[in-house]
Amino acid sequence: MERPLRAVGSPLTLAVLALLAEKPRHPYEMKVTMRERRIADTVKMRGGSLYDTIGRLERARLLTPTETSRAGARPERTIYAITDAGRDTLRDLMNEFIGEPVNEFPRFVAGLAHLAGLRPVDAAALLRKRADHLAAESERAAMELEAVADGLPRVVLLETEYLQRMRACEIDWLRQTATDIEHGGVPWPEPENAFGAKE
Q1: Distance between CA atoms of 107 and 99, rounded to whole angstroms?
Q2: Which residues does the UniProt record annotate as the domain Transcription regulator PadR N-terminal (predicted)?
Q3: Which of 17, 57, 77, 167 has its CA 20 to 30 A from that of 197?
Q4: Mind spelling out the 3-state secondary structure of 112-175?
């Protein structure tokens, strides 16, 4: 059955299918594995979104329940396995996500496009604020990664490695650009039209 990728083509779909391609799992184990591998850094998960995604994938016949189990007084757990159609979809999604660059219209870049509307001092302060947030995030990620890295192969942490490298590059760029702005190295429009000016 033909199924457009956009119907289930989210990063969370990719994560679920990839984990099930490794071995059958129940949703709680998927959550724990995503946390251990820091997949949550790249996948938006809120409330029951994992269960909603599993339900969609099951209806699309991309995964199937294989067994249910119960441990003591805990709720019953359903173990899911990927189907052949799910493996085909996973290959298609990997091709789309890795092999085809797309403009994802990030908020930060949209904000940069209008930076000239601020006073230089305010623009530089915001860039430094972002750099500080990213530096704290990077430090936190490094500590968490150190705690689990010994037990995991590098290949399952490549997205974290990439994000750490990208954060480092962005922090350098933000701080250097803020310095350039502060020292007049970036030409600026007349200040009377600055919408971010403070009294």
Answers
A1: 23
A2: 16-91
A3: 167
A4: HCCHHHCCHHHHHHHHHHHHHHHHHHHHHHHHHHHHHHHHCCHHHHHHHHHHHHHHHHHHHHHH
Give residue-wise pLDDT tens across range 96-123: 888 888 777 788 998 998 898 899 999 9
The phi, psi pair for 81, rounded to 5°, reads: -125, 150
In sequence order, the β-bridge partners of residue 10 are none
Residue at 103: amino acid letter: N
In sequence order, what DSSP letters do the residues of 26-74 get, joined into one string? -HHHHHHHHHHTTGGGTS---TTHHHHHHHHHHHTTSEEEEEEE--TTS
The count of C-alpha atoms lying within 13 angstroms of the C-alpha of 187, restricted to the half-sphere facing its C-beta, is: 0
Radius of gyration of the chain (CA): 22
CB 141 within 8 A of CB 161: no
pTM for this prediction: 0.70
